[in-house]
Amino acid sequence: MSKASKTNFSRRKAGRFSIGAIAVVAVMLAGLGIASFNVLAPRADTASAASNGIQPVQPVAGATLKIDREEAELGAISVEDVRSADFKLTNTGTEPVEISQVGTSCMCTFAEITLPDGKSPRFNMAMHNSPDANSWKGILQPGETAVVAVIYQPSLMPVEGSVTRNVKFATNDPQNPKVELGVHATVTGNASG
Question: Is the pTM for the entire model greater than 0.70?
Answer without folding.
Answer: yes
